[in-house]
């Protein structure tokens, strides 16, 4: 169901006019309220009045995680703290966390966008929403929670962890919609097998998975193992949290970006020049309607592309196919660029291999090495050494074929790779230590 008919199906022309109006208002407001933004705009020689067309966006300076760090914790807020009713933070991989703030109006806006998202995924007021995103500073738990309430559904605020108990609750309460990271969903699927619970006997119909990259193969795996439709949801704390973009249940193909609130761009990862529709590059967002913590041209470091082909669901927004990786997740192994998602793609096409893996990168002297540890099914693991050797050789050859770099492949016993309760840690790069 389309939650916000007027905005979600708005003709593109009208949408662009709305975006421009909102952008002009935003730029004028941050220029007036935030000395740091004013300084950056003055330095770039641009005034709020210079924004006459949407295209003029490209003259505005980017905002990066570094800018957020420099203003830690509240330096980029546009309102006094008494108007901020909530903060969240994302830890990231290095150093200081990024802190984001919301006014009462922002929380309401976010709840509406999450209700939109859940509705696009096929959820409605009769659903029992099992929310296994972590509650706390992470935006996943509370973001989804408020959206589910706005939708009028029943929320089960289970958060992450206590995996066995999650399954009992799912069965006893009759959860119909599962919200979690894809890696935790996989963990839940494994725990169901251990508990002797057949997912076909549960009431789950949709899983709304996000907060980390996942492949089409992983979708197939999750749909099969959990007997539900798997929907991709995308968002990031700096923009609002979850609820920036989501796939519709009709097509499950490309995430609709809520463009009336978030203005997307794709830029070249190196030159930062804008790229055309259909081209891949770094995803950049400007928040058009948030009050406490708006951002202008925030460089997400996520690699994506935008497509503008019409969708059968009737929504008129541009879509982004699955995020393929992050610019800072990219491993450079002996000079070759490698994304964990490419390794996942190879692994998930091999029969008998479980979707639990870890990539370990190290350096001996000046030589990089990459080891892929992957679990195999119980039956394969008890096979003869020879067939195990053949399997690891096959995976090794396929990795070499796809990425052009060789990796040592180690097949490990079922359940030896640490299970995630939130975002999975796929890469251990010992070179940085
Ligand atoms: O992960 C917000 C979220 C919560 C999204 C629940 C979806 C569901 P952060 O912790 O700030 O916020 O992390 C944001 O996670 O820049 C991406 O690199 C990654 N990410 C989020 N969703 C997806 C997705 C939340 N669907 C960072 N596919 C982003 C791939 C994703 N990567």
Write the topology of this structure.
Layout: H1 5-8, H2 12-33, H3 35-44, H4 65-70, E1 84-90, E2 98-103, H5 104-120, E3 128-131, H6 139-151, E4 154-156, H7 163-173, E5 177-180, H8 182-194, E6 206-210, H9 216-226, E7 229-236, E8 241-247, E9 255-257, E10 262-267, E11 281-287, E12 298-304, E13 319-320, E14 325-326, E15 331-333, E16 336-338, H10 340-347, E17 353-364, E18 367-376, H11 378-381, H12 385-403, E19 408-412, E20 427-429
Parallel strand pairs: 3-4, 3-5, 5-6, 6-7, 17-20, 18-19
Antiparallel strand pairs: 1-2, 7-8, 8-9, 9-13, 10-11, 11-12, 12-14, 15-16, 17-18
Helix pairs in contact: 2-3, 5-6, 7-8, 8-9, 10-12
This protein binds 5'-O-[hydroxy(phenylacetyl)phosphoryl]adenosine.
- As laid out across the biggest beta sheet, the strand order is 4-3-5-6-7-8-9-13
Could you list the spans in which at least 5 consecutive residues all have pLDDT below 50?
none
Could you say which small molecules are bound to this protein?
5'-O-[hydroxy(phenylacetyl)phosphoryl]adenosine
Instruction: Characterize the overall form.
Output: globular
Number of strands: 20
Average pLDDT rating: 94
Largest sheet: 8 strands, mixed
Q: Give the helix level as a range of percent.
A: 25-40%
Distance between the termini: 49 Å
Count of helix runs: 12
What percent of residues are in strands? 15-25%
- Which class do the helix and strand fractions yield? alpha/beta
């Amino acid at each position: 169901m389309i939650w916000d008919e007027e905005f979600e199906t708005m003709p593109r022309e009208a949408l662009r006019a709305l975006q421009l109006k909102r952008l002009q208002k935003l730029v004028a407001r941050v220029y007036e309220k935030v000395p740091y933004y004013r300084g950056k705009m003055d330095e770039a020689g641009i005034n709020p009045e210079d924004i006459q067309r949407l295209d003029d966006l490209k003259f505005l300076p980017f905002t990066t995680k570094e800018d957020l760090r420099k203003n830690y914790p509240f330096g980029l807020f546009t309102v006094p703290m008494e108007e901020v009713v909530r903060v969240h933070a994302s830890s990231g991989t290095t150093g200081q966390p990024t802190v984001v703030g919301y006014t009462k109006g922002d929380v309401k806006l976010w709840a509406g966008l999450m209700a939109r998202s859940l509705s696009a995924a096929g959820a409605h007021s009769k659903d029992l929403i099992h929310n296994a995103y972590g509650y706390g500073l992470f935006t996943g738990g509370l973001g989804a929670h408020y959206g589910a309430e706005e939708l009028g559904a029943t929320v089960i605020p289970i958060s992450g962890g206590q995996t066995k108990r999650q399954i009992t609750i799912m069965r006893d309460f009759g959860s119909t919609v599962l919200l979690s990271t894809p890696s935790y969903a996989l963990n839940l699927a494994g725990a169901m097998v251990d508990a002797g619970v057949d997912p076909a006997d549960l009431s789950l119909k949709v899983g709304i998975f996000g907060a980390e990259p996942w492949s089409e193969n992983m979708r197939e795996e999750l749909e099969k193992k959990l007997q539900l439709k798997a929907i991709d949801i995308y968002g990031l704390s700096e923009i609002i949290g979850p609820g920036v973009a989501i796939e519709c249940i009709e097509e499950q193909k490309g995430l609709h970006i809520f463009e009336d609130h978030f203005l997307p761009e794709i830029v070249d990862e190196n030159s930062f020049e804008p790229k055309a529709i259909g081209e891949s590059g770094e995803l950049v967002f400007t928040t058009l309607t948030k009050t406490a913590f708006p951002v202008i041209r925030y460089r997400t470091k996520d690699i994506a592309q935008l497509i503008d082909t019409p969708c059968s669901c009737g929504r008129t927004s541009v879509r982004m196919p699955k995020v393929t990786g992050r610019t800072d997740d990219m491993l450079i192994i002996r000079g070759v660029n490698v994304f964990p998602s490419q390794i996942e793609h190879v692994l998930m096409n091999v029969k008998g291999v479980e979707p639990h893996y870890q990539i370990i990168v190290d350096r001996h002297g000046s030589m990089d090495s990459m080891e892929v540890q992957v679990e195999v099914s119980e039956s394969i693991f008890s096979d003869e050494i020879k067939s195990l050797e053949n399997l690891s050789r096959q995976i090794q050859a396929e990795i070499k074929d796809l990425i052009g770099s060789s990796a040592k492949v180690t097949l490990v016993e079922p359940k030896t790779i640490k299970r995630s309760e939130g975002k999975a840690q796929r890469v251990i790069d010992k070179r940085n230590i």
